[in-house]
Amino acid sequence: MASLAPTFGRGAMTNHWVDIKNADLVLIMGGNAAEAHPCGFKWVIEAKKTRSAKLVVVDPRFTRSAAVADFYAPIRVGSDIAFLSGVINYLLTNDKINHEYVQAYTNAGYLINTGYTFNEGMFSGYDEAKRSYDNTTWKYQMDEATGFAKIDYSMQDPQCVLQLMKQHFAPYTPEVVSKVTGTPQKDYEKILEMMGECAKPNKVMTILYALGWTQHSVGSQNIRTMALIQLLLGNIGMAGGGINALRGHANVQGITDMCLIGASLPGYLANPTDKEATLAQFIEAKTPKLLQAGQMNYWSNYSKFFVSHLKSMYGPNATAENQFGYDWMPKIDGAQDVLALFERMHQGKLTGFFCQGFNPLASVPHAAKLGQALAKLKYLVVMDPLTTETSEFWKAHGEYHDVKPEEVQTEVFRLPANLFAEQEGSFTNSGRVIQWRWSGADAPGETKGDAEIMAALFLKLRDMYADGQGANSEPLKKLHWPYRIPNKPSPEELAKEVSGVALADVLDLKDPTKVLAKAGEQLAGFAQLRDDGSTSCGNWIYSGSWSQVGNLMARRDNSDPSGLGQTLNWGFAWPANRRILYNRASCDANGKPWDAKRTVIKWVGDKWTGNDIPDIRPDAPPAEVSPFIMNPEGVARLFAFAGMKEGPLPVHYEPFESPLAENPMFPSNAKAKNNPAARVFPGDQENFGTADAYPFVATTYRLVEHFHFWTKHSWLNAVTQPEQFVEIGEELAKSKGIAHGDKVRVSSKRGKIEAVAVVTKRIPTLQVNGKPTHTVGIPIHWGFKGVTRPGYLTNVLTPYVGDANVQTPEFKAFLVNIEKV
Amino acid sequence: MTAQMTRRQFFKVTAGGVASVGLGALGLSPEQVQAATRPFKLERTTEARNICPYCSVSCGVLMYSIGDKAKNVKAEIIHIEGDPDNPVNRGTLCPKGAGLLDMIHSPNRLKYPEVREAGTSEWKRISWDEAITRIATHMRADRDANFQAKNADGVTVNRWQSAGFLASSAASNEAGYLTNKVLRGLGMTAIDTQARI
């Protein structure tokens, strides 16, 4: 997601599940939708059946997605950027781009500072000691007279983005790409041709990816490389196009939107830091300056979203006089991601830790380090419906988890939480559609819901602090708690608070005689938010989901008059019920759809209308206002001058554990072997293995029968996949004397697992940099708790390093050895 | 079944018909009744619409439970199937979702609050009141000891950094929102969720 926001302005799947049926070409890479998202994958089959769409799958394994593909090509894990950079090179050198789109809707013509350079894998501004870049030289050239960025619409200036891209991607020729990725060159060239076809305005490609792209030390840039391809082809904003992140859990999108993330507040607002001492300073720092005349620059409304959020936090206690409670809001200091948290825990700096429906011992890398860290806590609280491994990190489980309970002094609490079937409230699917759910049963025993547990803890603490002693209790005493039953806030009350309410009459800014919402009414959407304290809104992007009309998330009208699968009256999609983000870009500069048969919206002389909520001001003239309204220049960023830690353009770097001695793109620069901006904690570098001791490439993945570490607790799923296994190719099996069904030991620098070997043709041996490279495939679903046969947590093997921007761990590419037991 | 009649209406009509007319009137002898097909279980169920909690396709599901939701009746789900009205899954469920019923009835579900005291090797059942009181006592002691009201430069920061929280991506938006509200309200900043991994 951190790659999409710096490119397009929002970090979310651009299209939605049913829209996949509108594609002409579907690329599945960095994911395996047939097995990980089976019921969404049906829309790929629908596209094949009804539009004769083609499916291309690129994966280290011949997956079930590959089994129904029109074309499959293998790839070495961790080399996706090289593969995709070669596509960009092909599109640019063979003129397979949508010129009008690229010129008008991207920053291809923008001029970049002359100080910008790229040499031997490194951009200008690198600070080796800090492993970070100063991005000053990556900025646009500014026109001092107008105050806006300089553009060469002919895209010929050597400093313009398009020319810089041509130069940057030129080394990725098919020969080089094949050498780096192991993809056979003729397979690769076939895929280049298929993708190049989609530069035609009426040919649309979509891409479906998931953790296969994110779980790398270059995860964000994997996705950005694809985003660049989709922009060059003119496929963003189109029905059947876009860049579609297939997310993990059923509500991972919703919880991301609520920003249960240290650095952000609901709706992707920033959590204030020490640098912003006052509300005014914060708003000044976060509100982007307009970079091009006449653009919407929607984040210019930042203060309205933020003050409305403070009102939802502190209610009547938040006033203009006290900066709407800004001082009560905790300021963050440094990284708060799960790897940083466990590092701090490992250093003994955390006293307490809470796991709500989260099993980090199973799902975070380097389980041995995690176990040591958890044992340093004074108290651990696990709120979960199931007996997770994390809750029993202190307990001996034979060979699968060897620990001495008497040596672990952590006090552990386990609170029973209810499951989906026993809850009411909303979930947001991968395509941003928020749907209401109803409870069907009572939870077993004394189980409580997550909200009820949080309310109980909060109310108990607030009572305790009534004594006026101890640390500053003002922030928690001022917290707005208007719920009818204080220890059981209802989903309806919370949903209305999230969506937003008028606290005073909200007037039309253009015509103050007109009242848009009366005091006490639910707001219709975020356009009605104000920064004077007259509106309260928990999460601005969800604004309007529960309007004065009622709960729009509970709508169940599945009619689809356009036939495109938009179903605008089913649930509610954020933002503003838009189903396809950036849909203004589905039309040319005059507002005419690139493909009339797939009209998303169109300009009808005085307004935008069509089969979706326009992602633009309804009366914005097509020639004046550009489609990417969240970016202050109004266009998408091929060149990301900000927001990406390791550079404005993607570069191939090797995984931190690579089978190669150097980066084949920059063999003479050791500093550019791995992502130069990735964070490595002291002690973790020594825990990386090398190819001499661990000669095989390993990758983790999911099976169609299981979901993460949950379904091992469910009989039916346990019956269908009862026992832990690893997959290896025939050549590797032969060389190691391993037969199908043998027990094998897989070891990395950090630990080992034992499992049954499945010897398969599905994992080919690849020729990488002139040498045969074998891959070991490791499904993740086992552990020492469950109704399956006990197994090892896969994450005893994986390395403790993450993507430079979002710290998603590198689960998909590391090194192991394998032996017959 | 006519197009206007749902499956549940159909059950209601036929079940009511049998009860009011009486078995004898239908010409059934006791032997014939014993030999008759069992009534559909679903006939006695209440239907609720929900969403599969696994992957992000977020398939609509129909859940059928026994128990009329009266005060002292414990409802129990006996069947789950895909929601045919849902525009995304159109009634389908995958091999993961096909096992939802077994997830709900998993023998490994937690039922009561428990504590594992420091250094011991077993769980001990405790009451909710004891659990919440003991946890809140830990939290307060920790917060009082480590809360930072101002940083070294005198900027108001009001943060409590010595406790961390991993939030659930299986929670509803509303529960997630409230979790965030409580955590920031207490001054916590060490917060993360599955979105990252």
From TrEMBL, chain A:
Family per record: Belongs to the prokaryotic molybdopterin-containing oxidoreductase family.
Organism whose genome encodes this protein: Thiothrix eikelboomii
UniProt KW Plastid keyword: no
Taxonomic lineage from the root: Bacteria, Pseudomonadati, Pseudomonadota, Gammaproteobacteria, Thiotrichales
Entry's Gene Ontology cellular component terms: periplasmic space
Name by which UniProt lists this protein: Formate dehydrogenase (Quinone-dependent) catalytic subunit
Coiled coil spans: none
Matching PROSITE patterns: MOLYBDOPTERIN_PROK_3 (PS00932)
One GO BP annotation of this record: anaerobic respiration
Keywords: 4Fe-4S, Iron, Iron-sulfur, Metal-binding, Oxidoreductase, Periplasm, Selenocysteine, Signal
Positions of the Molybdopterin oxidoreductase domain: 12-390
Localization (cell): Periplasm
Domain of life of the native organism: Bacteria
SUPFAM superfamilies, alphabetized: ADC-like, Formate dehydrogenase/DMSO reductase, domains 1-3
Residues annotated as domain Molybdopterin dinucleotide-binding: 696-814
Any GO molecular function: molybdopterin cofactor binding
Required cofactor(s): [4Fe-4S] cluster
Pfam families in the record: Molybdopterin, Molydop_binding
Automatic annotation (TrEMBL), chain B:
GO terms under cellular component: cell envelope
Superkingdom of origin: Bacteria
Single GO MF descriptor: electron transfer activity
Keyword S-adenosyl-L-methionine: no
Alphabetical GO biological process terms: anaerobic respiration
Keywords, sorted A to Z: 4Fe-4S, Iron, Iron-sulfur, Metal-binding, Molybdenum, Oxidoreductase
Subcellular location(s) of the protein: Cell envelope
Ranges of residues in domain 4Fe-4S Mo/W bis-MGD-type: 45-108
Entry-linked InterPro entries: Mopterin_OxRdtase, Mopterin_OxRdtase_4Fe-4S_dom, MopterinOxRdtase_cofactor_BS, TAT_signal
SUPFAM superfamilies named among the record's database cross-references: Formate dehydrogenase/DMSO reductase, domains 1-3
PROSITE patterns named among the record's database cross-references: 4FE4S_MOW_BIS_MGD, MOLYBDOPTERIN_PROK_1, TAT
Pfam (any one): Molybdopterin
Cofactor(s) this protein requires: [4Fe-4S] cluster; Mo-bis(molybdopterin guanine dinucleotide)
Main localization (coarse): other
Family label: Belongs to the prokaryotic molybdopterin-containing oxidoreductase family.
Protein name stated in the entry: Formate dehydrogenase (Quinone-dependent) catalytic subunit
Biological source species: Thiothrix eikelboomii
